[in-house]
Each structure stands twice: as structure tokens, then as C-alpha cells.
Amino acid sequence: MPHENSVFHSLLKHLPWDEFERLVEAHGADKRQRGFTAKTHLVAMICTQLCGTTSLRDIEAVLSSHAAQCYHLGIGAVRRSSLAEANRRRSSALFTDFLAVLMKRAHRGLRRKLDGLTYLIDSTSLTLTARSANWARFSTELCGAKAHIIYDPKADQPVYLAVTPANVNDITAAKAMPIEAGATYVYDLGYYDYGWWAALDAKGCRLVTRFKQNTPLRVTETRSVPPGSAILCDRIGHLPARQAKNRKNPFSKPVRELRVKINTGKVLRILTNDLTAPAQEIADLYKLRWAIELFFRWIKQTLKITRFLGTSENAIRTQIAVALIAFLILRLAQATQDAVTSPLTFARLIRANLMHKRDIRTLLKPQRPSPPCQHQLALL
Fold this sequence. Notes:
alpha+beta, 9 strands, elongated
């Protein structure tokens, strides 16, 4: 009978292990780790995210009950004490660097065309316990972190991650993000900074965001809008020449304001530096921003990153990076088949069959019963 790998083994084939070994060597990640290798650490943490386990004891039990499959995965025994120690001591930079490599490779595989790139920028808050207060205190009673994401809605994947304490402003994190020349960036009011907008514009980027309610526009041109449409106004003008404390506004180029009425009846003031695109195209781009909110909800609910296995900054950063690695290999695996189109359904099928010996492309098909072995035949 031909050997068949487990579903988990097939998923892990989507990881560039040569790059991981290179990063392990570069970070010295296997030095002084008493036998608990970086590969074992990574595989155990991916299993944690895919299984939805929320404690070290649970993941130890899951992997211990599938020792044969773990052997074929090339990992050693996982003890909760070893995993806790590794999460605390092994540098999270190994996993964030590996995530960056995987995001770059996956982006080429999941995106069919690289022209007209549109990126969504936002952050999501993660509530932490008081045990993380030494690095993530937000207020007297609350502790938390933020995951700052650049997301490609067409490929349905993140292309950049930064993790900060919750008290770091979104625009502070955005200024450290890489800017891709010529791309379109869509974001909300948390990134309201004229200097950053000017930097995007200088690289030929199209930006789509919202006006603050009290930001005036010195109008130079008013354009007609289609009667009866959701677009109420289309104007071109200049932002205020001066900012607070009498500073000169670094973004002096003309901008465009669209007033758009949404389904709830609220009117949004949308700002863009694109003076020529159809008004509806700009409105649709801003509406697309909802995709990143759905992505945040998906990873929180499906990959359970609202619960953490550790409390140290290193452990939190490690688990967030591994959660996104798990998300990417799910997306890459789903792209190899066409029977399951829903990402949520596919993730549930993977969870239910993770350690079973099945072909990922046939998860919806009923399994054939295994033929009886010689011992069973002799008993008949």
C-alpha cells in the first residue's frame, strides 16, 4: 500500500525550509537550547494555531498522541516546559524574518497580476493580561499590543507585519513601513499625517483616506457628479497651508474631496491625491478598506490569536508571527485545490483532519475503508 502523508505534513511542504535553516544559522537560534530545535518550535507553534489550542498542556497532549506523525515531520518530543522556555528565550526575530520571506514568496504565488497594486493599512489591538505589564501597559487597568498590517486584498494576504505595545500611535508605526513606489494605499484616520502623505505622494503613490471633520479645504474647482448617485460632491482644492504651532504644511499639492453617502445614511469625506480617476473608483477603493477588518476578524476567530501561550514580549511577538505563517500556508494549500472555495470551511476541514493521512485535495470526499491486513484476514 503506498505511503500517504498526513494533512499537516502536506501543509508544511509549503514552507521554504532552506530559508528557515539559513535564518536559524544566522540568528544562532539552536545554540544553548538543550535539544529543543527551532524547527520543532516552529512546527509545534503552527500546530497550536491550526488546532486552536489555548494552553501549553493542550499542545503537548495533541503532539504526544501523534508521535508517529511527529517523527515523519522531523521534529522531536514537545514538552510544555520546553515550549514555554523557547517562547521566552528564542528570539522572535527568527520567526518575523521567516514570515517576511514567506510573505514575499506567497505574494508572488497568490497574486495573478502585479500591476495596479492596492494595499490596505490598519492595525488591530490584542488584549493581554497584567503579566505583560512590564512592556505592554496601556493604562492603569489595561495591557495590550498592536499588530500593524499592510494587506493586499486581491491576494488576500498580509505583506508586512509590525508588533508594538498598544500605546504606540498607528502613524508612528506607519512611518517605519516600506513604501512601494506607484502603489495605491488605503487607510483610515489613524494615519492622518501630512508629512507622511507627502512622502507617499513623492514616490508616485495614490492615497485614499478620509478627511477629519474639522479639516477645511480651500476649493479651486468643483466638478459635476452623476444625479441620484451616492457621490454628493467632487471638489479639488488645497489643504491648510499651516499646521498646529504655525508649522508649514509639507503636503502643498492639490487634493480631491469626495462626499459619499453610505448605506447607513452617513456622509463620508474621502480624500485622494488622484485628480483624474472616476469618482466611483475612488469611492470603491475606500469601501475596499473593509477587507482588512474581515481579515483581522478571521485570524482572531479562526487562528485564536486572542489567547497567548506566553506573557513576555518575545513570546507574544513569536505567536503573532507564527499565526500569520499558519494563515499563509492555509492560503497556499487552498490554492492547490478547487473543491473548497471558502477559506473558513477549508480551515475547519484542515483542523478536523490535521493529523490524518489524507490528500488535501480530497478533504470533502469520504475516505475509503482501509483494506484488512494479513492478521485480520487470518481471523476471518
